[in-house]
Design brief:
By secondary structure, this protein is an alpha+beta fold. The chain is globular. Helix 5 runs antiparallel to helix 6. The longest helix has 19 residues. Bound molecules: zinc ion (3 copies). The site of one zinc ion has 8 residues, from helix 2.
């Protein structure tokens, strides 16, 4: 039996075998491992180099190609980010630059590199509102039908092929229906109405009725079989106000965000938050066609994470908790009763595309009024508790932007009943 020796690290009380001491220079294994890790960390810090992949690259298309290229993690390199986001770059592309990127995406698909190609096509379709006909043609021919939003501007030829394929391709039926919902042209509306009247033989294989897929693309069938849009095509984004840069006066803004409300939540007792405070007289929001002075959308930031909450509203800025609210099955105690401090959000006056930040996976900041919602999960339009009509999406607040946390609060309105609803999604 060999005698054990004390670890030479004065802070350590461990004892070790002589054989270990020989190997490590007298310290125990955990101390030895810690020493190696510290040395490695010090080495990385001393030798890490800044890498600027964009140095001397001025062509926006080349810059975007670099941005979209997957990276191999190298601890000895620190990549200097480009000074604009991909979204900002896409906003500024010329038509010929968009075409070059589309061609590049097609080349990537020929090489079976679908992830990168998909991101480029999605960015073109959402950020630059470009029609991606050639890219979509390749995507379709490769048997890819998802994400459906890529199909929103598909031509009749692709539409008819999708409708045909739906009949026999049970494996892809879910994605084919989504793609059709996104096309949403007259023929698709007619087809969805036919399925509503006469459910197809494959309808029982789905979790929802075929025509309900339209919600994922922001519309539904009305009572007469027409198309009813569930959002406003006009859209304006909120930006985090940069400190010290004055910016617009909240009072003169069309919509102010995240103000303390005066009422308390009857479920948890904390103060309600006015997510959106609309100045209905402001010219910017005349697209909503709401007469009156003011519309306030209030929510309990805690309880609203566990289900839809309805409020009564009027067009003079008053709001009250709706009697229709039902306590969710799962509602944990609100332990954080303090008023959260938000970043100051201000509404930009620049009109944006309806789908600009609608695809969540593109990771663009999502706080906005109007436009198509940025669903993190499946589409979830509340039904008005008074008239049973699907409520219209009017605004959303992205918590990553407003609070460096996560999730999105979505606001809806039934104009006829002046009922407001808020729900919440996260990953
Ligand atoms: Zn030790
Ligand atoms: Zn509450
Ligand atoms: Zn209603």
């Amino acid at each position: 039996m060999s005698e054990r020796l004390p670890c030479q690290n004065s802070d350590c009380k461990a004892s070790i075998l002589p054989a270990t001491a020989l190997k490590t220079g007298g310290i125990c294994m955990p101390c030895h491992q810690r020493k190696i890790a510290l040395e490695k960390q010090a080495f990385i810090e001393q030798n890490r180099k800044d890498v600027d992949l964009y140095a001397d690259v001025n062509d926006p298309v080349e810059i975007l190609k670099i941005m979209h290229k997957p990276r191999k993690y190298n601890p000895l390199e620190h990549e200097i980010p480009y000074h604009k986001t991909a979204q900002e770059m896409y906003h500024q592309l010329t038509e010929s630059e968009r075409e070059r990127l589309e061609t590049y995406a097609i080349t990537l698909m020929e090489e079976d590199n679908f992830d990168q190609a998909e991101t480029i096509l999605l960015s073109l379709a959402c950020f630059s509102s470009a029609r991606i006909e050639r890219g979509l043609e390749s995507f379709f021919r490769k048997g890819k039908y998802y994400p459906g939003i890529l199909y929103k501007d598909a031509d009749q030829d692709i539409r008819d092929k999708l409708i045909h394929q739906l009949e026999f391709d049970s494996e892809n039926r879910n994605h084919l229906l989504l793609a059709l919902a996104w096309i949403g042209d007259e023929e698709v509306v007619r087809q969805f109405e036919t399925w509503r009247q006469h459910p197809p033989r494959w309808a029982p294989e789905l979790n929802i009725s075929p025509e309900t897929y339209a919600h994922e693309a922001g519309w539904e069938l009305d009572n007469d079989g027409g198309k009813r849009l569930l959002f406003y095509p006009e859209s304006y984004h909120f930006k985090v106000r940069v400190a010290g840069r004055g910016g617009m006066d909240q009072a003169s803004s069309a919509v102010a965000a995240l103000r303390a409300g005066e009422h308390s939540c009857p479920w948890c007792g904390s103060k309600l938050t006015v997510l959106f405070d609309y100045n209905l007289q402001n010219p910017l929001i005349q697209f909503m066609k709401l007469p009156g002075q003011r519309l306030r959308i209030a929510a309990c930031m805690h309880c609203n994470c566990y289900g839809t909450v309805f409020m009564n509203a009027d067009l003079d800025g008053r709001y009250s908790w709706s009697d229709y609210n039902v306590v969710p099955d799962f509602l944990p105690e609100n332990e954080d009763m303090e008023q959260i401090s938000w970043h100051a959000m201000e509404l930009s006056e620049r009109l944006m595309g309806a789908y600009d930040n609608a695809y969540w996976m593109l990771e663009a900041p999502a706080s906005k009024i109007g436009g198509h919602p940025t669903w993190i999960q499946d589409a979830e339009y509340p039904v008005c508790p008074c008239c049973s009509t699907t409520m219209k999406f009017i605004a959303q607040m992205d918590m990553e932007q407003a609070e460096d946390s996560e999730g999105i609060y979505y606001a809806f309105l039934c104009e006829a009943c002046l009922k407001v609803a808020v729900n919440y999604q996260q990953t």
